[in-house]
Write a structure and sequence with these properties.
CATH architecture of the largest domain: 2-Layer Sandwich
CATH superfamily of the largest domain: ATPase, nucleotide binding domain
Number of helices: 10
Strand content: 15-25%
Order of helices and strands: HEHEEEEEHEEEHEHEEEHHHEHEH
Structural class: alpha/beta
CATH topology of the largest domain: Nucleotidyltransferase, domain 5
Largest sheet: 5 strands, mixed
Distance between the termini: 29 Å
Number of strands: 15
Strand order of the largest sheet: 6-5-4-7-10
Radius of gyration: 22 Å
Helix content: 25-40%
CATH class of the largest domain: Alpha Beta
Length: 375
């Protein structure tokens, strides 16, 4: 089966206008031009065209300035929708997003998704139920975003996923997804979609260049540079665990090792979701895991600070927020080292994810929107 059409559905300048409105809506129409290198006449024409296509709409007048209130412009949220699937080692999440990049509905299948074909069949049925429940036409769907733990191998971008996801590994998933859902499919690892979700719905609202750390069963991340995700030549940018030697792997900040340490200490944790929901910093094993792991994390933070020079480093994935705060408090930045003349270089802010919900699942649902309509 040939891959379905995946080209952008708006011109470069139209995507620029849509992205400006998305990030600042409701935005006074008169101020849009200031965020572009286009003329007022060109912006007016683009806004009119996008409104006629049903992608933009006029909002309530802006009353913050003197004189005649300026009409505002907003995204038409019901214009189109996109679907996202996020596969983790202990659950699969199906999401439906509207044109405003908001999640309309979400379904979670708990447990290890051992049977790939059966899981996809169930997800297809659940998508039909979601569309019926919200009275959304299938014709308004523009694509499917798919995210999973692991890195890409081969020219056809097959996942090499963690052991619990063996059934999903080294398989050409794109034609299978497009056959089951009859939608063009975009595939990225879950750390990259986490970074995309964070850029559109979280830290990206105030920060354009950041590294996203995805603490899951494994450990990886994603990069957003000047507001755009950086995927790398092979699609594996953000595969941060490669900086660790084989004898260091079990000390990297992957949550599978924290769960193993907790179980050895008598704390019965059955899944990553259980860890996130019930985390207690006083559990036996937490401090010993942190003492082993933080030097590994500090090395990565120093590498990112030196190579990328990000404004922020975001602690995300399935990390319990309280554990994230403990790690941020203990992290040592290169700027904290002694420097000549007592003057240190500025360093990145270390922050928790600001995305409401699972950034990876949200980012998966937003993949088609970002690549077809936004920048």
């Amino acid at each position: 089966m040939a891959a379905l059409e995946k080209s952008p559905l708006a011109s470069e300048n139209e995507r620029l206008i849509l992205d400006i409105v998305r990030s600042r809506e409701p935005i006074p129409r008169a101020t849009i031009t200031a965020h572009t290198n286009l003329t007022q006449q060109s912006v007016h024409r683009l806004v009119e065209t996008l409104t006629a296509r049903g992608l933009l709409r006029a909002g309530a007048p802006f009353k913050g300035a003197r004189g005649q209130p300026s009409p505002t412009i907003e995204l038409e949220r019901k214009a189109v929708y996109s679907v996202g699937i996020s596969v983790n080692t202990d659950a699969v999440t199906l999401s439906l997003a509207d044109f405003g990049c908001d999640i309309v509905d979400q379904e979670v299948l708990s447990g290890v998704p051992a049977d790939r074909k059966a899981t996809l069949a169930i997800l297809a049925e659940k998508l039909s139920s979601i569309l019926t429940r919200h009275e959304i036409s299938r014709a308004s769907l523009i694509g499917l975003g798919f995210a999973m733990s692991g890195f890409f191998v081969g020219d056809d971008r097959r996942f090499n996923a963690p052991e619990p996801l063996r059934e999903w590994s080294l398989v050409d998933l794109q034609p299978e997804l497009e056959h089951v859902f009859a939608l063009p499919a975009w595939l990225e690892n879950n750390a990259t979609t986490g970074a995309i979700g964070e850029s559109l719905r979280g830290v990206g609202r105030w920060c354009k260049t950041f590294a996203y750390l995805s603490f899951n069963y494994g450990f990886g991340g994603g990069l957003v540079l000047e507001g755009r995700p950086y995927l790398g030549f092979h699609g594996n940018a953000g595969e941060f665990s490669v900086i660790y030697n084989p004898d260091e792997v079990q000390r990297r900040p992957a949550l599978q090792y924290l769960i193993a340490t907790l179980r050895e200490s008598g704390v019965d944790i059955g899944s990553l979701e259980e860890l996130k929901q019930n985390f207690d910093p006083s559990w036996p094993g937490v401090e010993s895991w942190l003492s082993e792991t933080m030097p590994m994390l500090d090395r990565l933070i120093a590498t990112l600070a030196g190579v990328i020079d990000p404004q922020a480093i975001v602690f995300g994935g399935q990390l319990p927020p309280e554990l994230g705060r403990m790690m941020i408090a203990r992290a040592r930045l290169p700027s904290q080292r002694p420097h000549r003349y007592g003057a240190a270089p500025p360093g990145p802010q270390l922050v928790l994810s600001e995305t409401e919900g699972d950034a990876s699942a949200i980012g998966a649902a937003l993949l088609p929107l970002k690549f077809r309509y936004f920048l």
